[in-house]
Design brief:
The chain is of the alpha+beta class. 24% of the residues lie in helices and 34% in strands. It is built from 3 helices and 8 strands; from the N terminus they run αβββαββαβββ. The longest helix has 22 residues. The radius of gyration is 19 Å and the shape is globular.
């Protein structure tokens, strides 16, 4: 009886651990950011964070983000003037988690979007 109870507990713990790992799967928004900063190179003060590239069909593309848009806020935290190590973790989300950004177009118009992270697409190799 004790052995079977241990097996049940082991299976339960394994299921919880698997669910935790799956829940923590790295999310993908489909954008790359070019960050300019000043100060110590390992943790610079951000002067600008600009969208460098947006992947077709990604959450960022679906939301209308385009290359050249400047990120003004991440999750309500102002980006210009912030330390890089305080902003970077805010953009790291798991699959299904949301990310709210405030951006500015090159025309000067500001807008906000909320993106939902998806699993990173598999790269097809031919």
């Amino acid at each position: 009886m004790r052995r079977s109870m241990n097996a049940v507990w082991l299976m339960l713990l394994l299921a919880i651990a698997t669910a935790t790992v799956a829940k923590a799967q790295e999310g993908y928004f489909g954008l790359t950011v070019d960050v300019d900063g000043t100060g110590f190179f390992l943790n610079p003060t951000i002067t600008t964070a600009t969208i460098k590239q947006v992947a077709a069909g990604s959450p960022a593309a679906t939301a209308g983000i385009v290359a050249g848009d400047e990120i003004l806020e991440v999750e309500g935290h102002v980006v210009p003037g912030a330390k890089a190590d305080s902003i970077a973790p805010l953009m790291e989300k798991g699959v299904g988690q949301s990310l709210t950004l405030k951006l500015r177009r090159s025309s000067g118009a500001a807008y906000s979007v909320t993106l939902v992270a998806i699993a990173r697409p598999q790269i097809e190799r031919g």
